[in-house]
Design brief:
TPR_MalT, DNA-binding, 926 residues, mainly alpha, 66% helix, globular, Rossmann fold, single chain, two-stranded antiparallel sheet, five-stranded parallel beta sheet
């Protein structure tokens, strides 16, 4: 990865320690020495030969203890280690990644290009980008590091499993990952097992043998036990370490001995329940009540116990529990947060749910209120759901919608909460339902958004009928306005042109009179997006400027940024790429400073900056910005950002000679576009794929993509102009050029040029001029080709357009060579020096392009380089074979024959077979 542009790299902010529960990131401490168990210790040592180790066994089999043994062994090797003790809250993918990144960067300070302090929002793709840079840095340093993940069985979110699989795939060999879980790793890890990268250690290895049981009990400093007693305990516990530990705790109590062992061996009850009952029977009733209440929560504090649960002596009770080793784990050094060993908390939760369900509900409800007052909204909502009070959960969700979606950008979290609420709870909460619609649209889930909007519309109609019948007030106008705005935005995002126009006519005036600045701003910006899609750039610029005024009045930063960004996107499409790049660079730097490098807003600005930079030929800048912004914008961006993200990323990868990665990027974009019903994105990516296939000589595949996009070359679009999407038009033009269907093509391009000039679509105008120059060159009119490309260069030089010209392929390079020989230079601002620099930048961009068809090698009188296949075709032309017979003779398609003939004509500067044969003879090629 290239080094970041110094102008765009933000300084590292200080680490925010308060974001983490400190002891989750620390290796557990044990008193005394770990018990030496020779057989198990040998198995653990052998497992270290693999890069990934997973200890999987039921609760209490000593998985954490075994991890500690592995950690000490790695310490002895000089390997750095980091630890994450997972809990149920880590099922959130972003939280999981945050803890992993923090643990790694604490173990090796300075590793990776960015720190978590650079991130203002808990976004998965941004965090993955940080972790990817950490892995690259580890590989460069070759620094050995071991990451320990304890209690991984608490993770049941498939998205987190996928992230772990991704980490194991992209991480270097110097990073070991050691995992403790009650379950085997998911099926997605089977590839690691087949590659012998993953070592599984299960309950068979972790179960203690008879001899190891004797060692374990002896280390507990119990009164001497006979061999029969040890055997009895071994057989009953089946080598279960936690069971033996509970036995030791019970035997240490006064008055217990052989009688307890005999009773224990004769019971048929569940071993863990029996042993816990034996231990908990020693606990005073007040402490038992405390245990039963606090075990309901993944974590608890003395303040929660006192204020919400009525346990005013919580401090003393916690001290008693710690003194009696009742599986209590401190989560920070200050004694503010605790949790129990999962074995104990699972047992107590089950007992409380079965014996006192009402008490559990009251505790959850009280805790929910306490968490809400403390600003811990996620835990407040989780407790509300646990209590069964779904109305309370919905109330809490409504209160934090803005924080979750606009500050944190976590639309997926809102969607998950919403989907847990039943219809009867949601029926009256139209505001929450519309918030869900906006999150669904922002996440590209247009089908879900449409279904929700239709349901809201139906429910409001029913409510209106009831209100009229009962003589009540009509529906709040603000709710109706919000619904209309959501419909309008939905039509814009899904490119439903006629519905947008209808909505604008029917509702536009009403919104303008509503007096709500946010509503007015949203509608104006949506209308500006629609005008942009319709290529009415003057209207789009005016509407976005007006929307910005309303957003500024409300101090709504994200809206202001959206309007400012649109201004520069419009400038780029109007041919002012150089100015757009400068404006977007300044805006991107501001977004990073205000919101963080990996915020959604900064990412979307970065994607547009990358597109402008690529257009200007600044591929290094585009690559740097994409490294930070692509994953986020390609997931959360609006339609224009989706298009720019995948197109620019694939083009930069192709410039880096990473053809397979570029093709994969296009394939991912197409899959996402189809999944989310985004037709504009689909067609734009299909157009790019056609362009790439043609330049690689894969004409049959290009024709197949064209047919998939609805292009029928047997019946080309006649007179349709730009009524179709411009990408479809470009697909057809390129395919007609490639297959020799040239009749009327010049007139079609001229009609299109007249429209684009009228619409001020300078970027597309330059592309069409480049294609027209290829057409003229292909028909042997090199002078006219030079004149037309000269017009394109004049427009390009004025605005800094580069890639729109050279990306049309090696044919354009041939005409540029002719222009340079003739001394023709585009009129560029700044005089002859600027003209010279512009031409040089174009040839530099041509050199950046990946090799495809051989470039033009000179005019008449110069050496012409032909490939072996092209010479073979020339010899067959001498024999009078037509295209069909040429295809049969060469075992290729007729389309590919036409592709070769086009290249031959281009190199020989001719436009017919006869002229090609004559010219080839003159140059002694045949």
């Amino acid at each position: 990865m290239a080094a970041p542009d110094p102008a765009l790299t933000m300084p590292r902010a200080p680490r925010a320690e308060g974001r983490f529960i400190e002891t989750k990131l620390r290796r557990p401490q044990v008193a005394g020495e770990l018990v030496a168990l020779a057989r198990l210790d040998r198995a653990l040592t052998a497992a270290l030969a693999r890069r990934v180790v997973c200890l999987s066994a039921p609760a209490g089999f000593g998985k954490t203890t075994s991890l500690l043994k592995l950690a000490r062994a790695l310490d002895a090797e000089g390997c750095a280690t980091c630890w994450v003790s997972l809990d149920a809250q880590d099922n959130e993918t972003a939280r999981f990644l945050q803890y992993v990144i923090e643990a790694v960067q604490r173990a090796l300070p300075g590793v990776g290009q960015y720190m978590l302090a650079d991130v203002s929002e808990a976004n998965v793709d941004a965090l993955k980008a940080i972790l990817r840079s950490v892995c690259e840095d580890l590989a460069a340093r070759a620094a050995p590091l071991a990451l320990f993940l304890d209690d991984y069985h608490l993770i049941d979110n498939p998205a987190v499993h996928a992230v772990l699989a991704w980490l194991l795939k992209v991480s270097p060999d110097c990073l070991r990952v050691l995992i403790a879980s009650r379950y085997r790793l998911p099926a997605g890890m089977d590839g690691l097992r087949r590659q012998q990268v993953l070592a599984d250690i299960g309950s068979a290895e972790l179960s203690l043998t008879l001899d190891e049981t004797a060692c374990f009990l002896s280390a507990a400093q119990l009164p001497a036990l006979s061999a029969d007693q040890v055997r009895t305990l071994f057989e009953r516990t089946e080598g279960w370490a936690a069971g033996l530990q509970l036995v030791a705790m019970a035997l240490q109590a006064e008055g217990r001995g052989a009688g307890f062992i005999d009773e224990f061996s004769g019971t048929d009850r569940d071993v863990s329940a029996y042993l816990l009952e034996a231990v908990l029977a020693q606990v005073p009733p007040a402490v038992m009540r405390f245990l039963s209440l606090t075990a309901l929560f993944d974590r608890f504090s003395p303040a929660l116990c006192s204020d919400a649960l009525g346990q005013h002596d919580a401090g003393a009770t916690i001290a008693w529990i710690r003194a009696h080793n009742l599986f209590l784990i401190a989560l920070d050094d200050g004694g503010q947060w605790f949790r129990y060993h999962h074995l104990l908390s699972d047992y107590l939760r089950g007992a409380t749910a079965a014996g006192a369900p009402d008490q559990a509900c009251l505790a959850y409800r009280a805790a929910s209120a306490w968490f809400a007052r403390e600003g811990l909204q996620d835990e407040a909502i989780a407790c509300a759901f646990q209590s069964g009070d779904l109305h309370l959960a919905a109330d809490l969700i409504e209160r934090c919608v803005e924080d979750v979606t606009q500050r944190r950008g976590d639309h997926d979290q809102l969607i998950r909460w919403y989907q847990r609420l039943p219809e009867d709870t949601l029926f009256e909460r139209i505001g929450l339902r519309l918030s869900y619609v906006r999150s669904a649209m922002w996440s590209g889930r247009l089908r879900e958004a449409q279904s929700a909007l239709l349901a809201i519309e139906s429910d409001l109609a029913l409510r209106y009928a009831v209100s009229v019948y009962e003589g009540k007030d009509a529906i709040d106008a603000a709710i109706l306005g919000d619904l209309q705005i959501c419909w309008y935005m939905f039509h814009v995002f899904s490119n439903r042109v006629e519905r947008v126009r209808e909505s604008k006519r029917a509702w536009g005036a009403q919104w303008e009179r509503s007096g709500n600045p946010i509503d007015i701003a949203r509608v104006k910006l949506a209308a500006a997006c629609f005008a942009f899609i319709e290529h009415d750039y003057r209207e789009a610029l005016a509407l976005s400027a007006s929307a910005q005024t309303f957003y500024e009045r409300c101090d709504y930063y994200s809206g202001v940024v959206g309007c400012r960004r649109m201004r520069w996107v419009l400038a780029r499409e109007r041919g002012q790429a150089r100015e757009a790049e400068q404006g977007l660079a300044a805006l991107y730097e501001e977004n990073c400073r205000e919101l963080g490098t990996y915020s959604i807003i900064a990412a979307n600005t970065g994607i547009q900056l990358a597109d402008a930079a690529y257009e200007c030929g600044h591929v290094d800048l585009a690559r740097t910005v994409l490294a930070n912004a692509f994953d986020m914008s390609s997931k959360y961006g609006l339609v224009t950002d989706f298009i720019a993200a995948f197109l620019t990323a694939s083009r930069v990868l192709r410039c880096d000679r990473q053809g397979e990665a570029a093709n994969a990027c296009l394939a991912d974009g197409l899959a996402l576009a189809r999944e989310r019903s985004l037709p504009r994105l689909t067609v734009a990516l299909q157009a790019e794929r056609v362009r790439v296939y043609l330049q690689e000589g894969r004409i049959d595949e290009a024709l197949k993509v064209g047919r998939g996009a609805g292009i029928d070359l047997a019946q080309p679009g006649e007179g349709a102009g730009l009524a179709r999407p411009s990408e479809l038009v470009l697909i057809e033009l390129r395919l007609r050029l490639a297959t020799g269907r040239l009749q009327g093509l010049g007139l079609s391009i001229d009609d299109l040029l007249a429209q684009t000039r009228k619409q001020q679509r300078v970027r597309l105008t330059v592309r069409l001029l480049a294609l027209k120059s290829v057409l003229l060159q292909q028909t042997g009119r090199m002078d006219d080709a030079c004149a037309v490309l000269g017009s394109a260069l004049a427009l390009g030089a004025a605005g800094g357009l580069s890639r729109s010209i050279v990306d049309e392929g090696p044919e354009v390079r041939a005409v540029l060579e002719q222009l340079r020989r003739r001394g023709d230079r585009p009129a560029a601002p700044g005089g002859s020096s600027a003209e010279h620099d512009y031409l040089n930048s174009l040839f530099s961009a041509c050199d950046d392009a990946p090799a495809s068809t051989p470039p033009f090698c000179g005019g008449l009188g110069t050496a012409v380089k032909m490939t072996q296949r092209e010479v073979e075709i020339l010899k067959l032309l001498q024999c009078g074979l037509d295209n069909r017979h040429l295809a049969v003779q060469l075992a290729i398609s007729e389309g590919t024959v036409k592709w070769y003939l086009r290249n031959i004509y281009q190199k020989l500067l001719v436009s017919s077979r006869t002229a090609a044969i004559a010219r080839a003879r003159e140059l002694r090629l045949i």
